[in-house]
Amino acid sequence: MSNYTFPKDFLWGGAIAANQSEGAYLEDGKGLTNVDLLPTGDKRRDIMKGYVPSLKPLKDEFYPSHEAIDFYHRYKEDIALFAEMGFKVLRVSIAWSRIFPTGEDETPNEAGLKFYDDLFDELLKNSIQPVVTLAHFDVPVNLIEKYGSWRSRELVYLFERYAKTVFSRYKDKVKYWMTFNEINMLLHLPFLAAGLIFKEEGNKKQIQYQAAHHQLVASALAVKTCHEIIPDAKIGCMLAAGTFYPYTCNPEDVFHALEKDRESYFFIDVQSRGKYPGYAKRFFKDHHLNIEMKPEDEEILKNHTVDFIGFSYYSSRTTSTDPEVIKNMTSGNVFGSVSNPYLEKSEWGWTIDPKGFRITANQLYDRYQKPLFVVENGLGAVDEVTEDGKINDDYRIDYLKQHIAEMAEAIQDGVEIIGYTSWGPIDIVSASTGEMKKRYGYIYVDRDNKGKGTLKRIKKKSFYWYKSVIESNGENL
């Protein structure tokens, strides 16, 4: 666990999202979004899947995004802590509805634009480059009500206008961009990822893949616009990654694992290679899907591919075609996975597989031959504050140590990785569960699952460990 070599300009840092950290959910003109309608508790997962009881917050529910960790008002304090760790970059997202509260306002909301001006200025003042995601699971509720969200082609043009607005505003401050966060989550948690609601009986796959096409075209147009407005910027896509292992060497299991990987790679194939792969066309045919496309879409996708591949990695997955085997599925993982007997699990049922990180990175680079950016990786765990006010999170250090070591091995394999932003460098609201109890950070935030607490920030043991990692450019794990 020592003497690993990383590129001298490697981008160490952390990653957060607007809807999981900012709070101030209607402040300074911000509009309501899909994530603002996700409560904690048992109902959350069904809503994320598209079964939405109301497009307004309900009085008897607690919505963690509404205050989150109040990053909106406390970002200077938090950025100072990130700077103390030595961050080179911080990945954040812009809340679409802070800029265009309804998604189709005639003019952008100046208060929202100013907030991100101030945020980026504070980062740059601390020698931290912003890495900005345009859409991290944020869709203005008005666009869901009026157009059915990404079902409609109209969102392509509204998103393009939003992208042009922020590229023009921040062209001198932001040089690393991404279009859609974990774009493949549209197939798994469609309301969370894309604001899709399913009320009527019908072909759910048809709706999802039509929405996917609209997002892919919007992504390509954002790439085009970014290259035009900020020629020295880099803009990438973003995948929720993690390779699928076949449970056995039965060829049926092996091919099924290939299909499960392609389910996600499909999005990046289009964004990186500029066209729909043959297996996707066959999938549409086999499932009787008729994806409506404009005549110009083929050229848009072909001519405006991404500069790098951003990806999250938390765990590998395992799959089988044996009905008896698939009864033994891991809990908590958004991507259904057979329990892998060779791997341990986190407290939330996610497999812990550092070697899978190296495998995934190699597969992505072999497939696309474009720079990779690890923009999420981390361990969600319960942290306890000791009587003397300390948090000894050695389990998190061990997890990250093993994963960073495997990332270093991937670099030695010849994989081009430009940076690493661990997920949740400060405790934030969990996207999958809405909990604060599921903590990822190097910095503890005093807040519980019911929104109670002082919001005080406390450095964990991992804070000092990650500071040492960055200081040594990864040599001292």
Explain this structure.
This is 6-phospho-beta-glucosidase. The active site is at 376 (nucleophile). By secondary structure, this protein is α/β, with parallel strands linked by helices. It has one domain: Glycosidases (TIM Barrel, Alpha-Beta Barrel), CATH 3.20.20. 39% of the residues lie in helices and 13% in strands. It is built from 15 helices and 14 strands. It has helices at 18-21, 43-48, 71-85, 96-99, 110-125, 141-147, 154-170, 190-194, 204-229, 251-273, 278-286, 297-303, 354-368, 394-412, 461-471, and strands at 11-15, 89-93, 129-135, 176-180, 234-241, 244-246, 308-313, 317-319, 344-345, 351-352, 372-376, 417-423, 443-445, 457-459. Strands 1-2-3-4-5-7-11-12 form an eight-stranded parallel beta barrel, surrounded by five helices. The chain has a two-stranded parallel ribbon with strand order 6-8. Helix 3 (71-85) packs parallel to helix 5 and helix 9 crosses helix 12. The longest helix has 26 residues, at 204-229. The chain is globular. The N and C termini lie close together (6 Å).
Keywords:
alpha/beta, 6-phospho-beta-glucosidase, 14 strands, single chain, 39% helix, two-stranded parallel ribbon, beta-glucosidase activity, 13% strand, 477 residues, TIM Barrel, glycosidase
State the helix count: 15
How helix-rich are the residues, as a percent range?
A: 25-40%
* Separation, N- and C-terminal Cα atoms: 6 Å
Q: In CATH's first tier, which class applies?
A: Alpha Beta
Average pLDDT number:
96
Largest sheet: 8 strands, parallel, barrel
* Alpha-beta classification: alpha/beta
**Strand percentage:** 5-15%
Number of strands: 14
- Specify Rg, calculated over alpha carbons: 21 Å
The parts where pLDDT drops under 50 for at least 5 residues are none
CATH topology: TIM Barrel
* CATH architecture field: Alpha-Beta Barrel
How many domains make up the 3D coordinates?
Answer: 1
CATH superfamily: Glycosidases
